[in-house]
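Why does residue order matter? Because the sequence determines the fold. Keep that principle in mind as you read this record.
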Amino acid sequence: MKRVQILSIFVDDVTMAEAVDRCLGFIDAGGPHMVVTPNAEIADRAARDPELAAIINGADLVVPDGIGIVMAARLLGDPVREKVGGADLAANLLKALDGRGGGRVFLLGTRPEVVEEAARRVQAAHPRIQVVGWRDGFFRPEEEGEVVAQIRAARPDVLFVALGSPKQERWLHRHLPGLGVPLGMGVGGTIDVWAGAVPRAPRWMIRANLEWLYRIVRLRRLRRSLPPLMRFALAVLRARARRGA
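Structure:
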């Protein structure tokens, strides 16, 4: 599978259908396999954090999550075929599992009442899937062993981790090898969306690749999100200029 370099990280040139198929293959093969969904903000952080970059580059599947990554690849002369959003990949994976007869899923992250409601909704929407466990993300470091034991005992095929980036990537890198889970995937705010606690952008904004703008405005993240997005854009333009020199 072709990988494309975006600053300090590499992303796979996959379509959504290919990404889902690869995830199903990971499940069938047994674990552990880690899926990462970097957007422009994560790529910016990784450019300044070699440890995070190494974690991302060591993942089994790294999808181009976000129009910023897609545009950067194009500007750097090595385009990817399409955007593969992490939220959409997770949702399509659930549909694929349900369609082929089921699978076992564990949800980790966000607030207790939110992750419980997300588990209920996922189970209701996909009756052939078993949601074999859930746990909120507000556990203390000394409770990590308990969380790991809970996941291992549940024996899921897929572990969705919503601890925010880069915490979720670091957590998966540290614990996935010992969990006995075939597929671990960081999903950011997706569990909140599944629970109905946070709305997704309108479909027209998603189709227009403006979901990032909706998140910034809706969640009042302009002050937090603008600096890394600007750094990312400038770094990509500098990298493009160096390539053209």
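The beta strands are 3-6, 9-12, 33-36, 61-62, 103-109, 129-135, 158-162, 183-186.
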